[in-house]
Amino acid sequence: MEENSKKNIVNHFEAGSNCQVFNGNITGCTFAMPGSTVTQQAAVPVPEPQGDTPPEVAEPCNIQREPLFHFIHPAVDSRQEWQIHDEVKHLVARQGIQEICHYLKLMVVDRKILLPQSPSIAYEELVRMGMPSGSGFNEKTFQKYYRKA
Prior knowledge:
The protein is mainly alpha-helical. It has a domain at 65-145. Helix content is 32%, strand content 4%. It has 5 helices and 2 strands, in the order αββαααα. It has helices spanning 2-5, 81-94, 97-109, 119-128, 139-145; strands at residues 8-10, 21-23. Strands 1-2 form a two-stranded antiparallel sheet. It is elongated. 12% of the residues are buried. Mean pLDDT is 77; it is low at 8-12.
């Protein structure tokens, strides 16, 4: 009785409608429109991770995402590729050109990325990853700091 009083029921339809929406964590229930037939199936158990691999390091799902950062070092394990991709994406979205170039050089030293010789190609890829291309982020400024930092 006390449990039912905690459920929040909101009617999002016209007055007199029998349709209701339950907001909250409701489990073990089946919802169906009046007059419909419902066939229930047993829930499929989710397998536990096996081996020494912790869940946060397990292989990522094959969800279709944007293309990987193009300059990931060839020696990088495939499990780390998306982590490096996200690291570069956060870097270019939050830092200035000097900091971006300096951090990219550190990533090269750590053998995470392998940058091209051409600053223009690197600039295009970083813009694709989310680096602004407006004031203070133009290609000429980027070329000034590329490989210097």
